Amino acid sequence: MKFWKKKKILIPLIIVLFLGILRIIAPPLILQKINAELKDMSPTLTGHVADLDLALLFGSATLEGVTASIKDSGKEFLKVKSANASLDLWELIRGNVEVKALIKNPDFTYSNELMEAIKDHVASQPKEDRPLPDIRVARVDVKDAVMRMEPYPSLSKGGGVVMSDVEVRATNVIPSDKLEKTLFSLQGKLLKSGDVKVTGAAKIEEKPLEWTVDSEILNFDLTSLNQFLRQKVPLTFTKGELDFFVEAKSEDGKITGYLKPFVERLDVVKTDEDFKNTKHWIFEIISALGNIVMQEEEVAATKVPFVFDGKLKAETGESLGNAFEHAFVQEISRGIENTIQLQEE
Amino acid sequence: MKNMIMSSAILLLLSACASKEPKKEVKYKKEVPQITTTSPKPGPDTTSLMMASELGTDLVTEIKFAEGSSELGQKAKNKLNKLWEKALKKGEVTKVEFITWADKEYPAEKKEDLNDQQKALADSRNEALRKFFIRKDSDMELVSVSMAERPGFMGRVTASDEVQAKKSLQLADIATTSNKSGVTNASKSIIMIFYSE
Question: What is the model's pTM?
Answer without folding.
Answer: 0.85
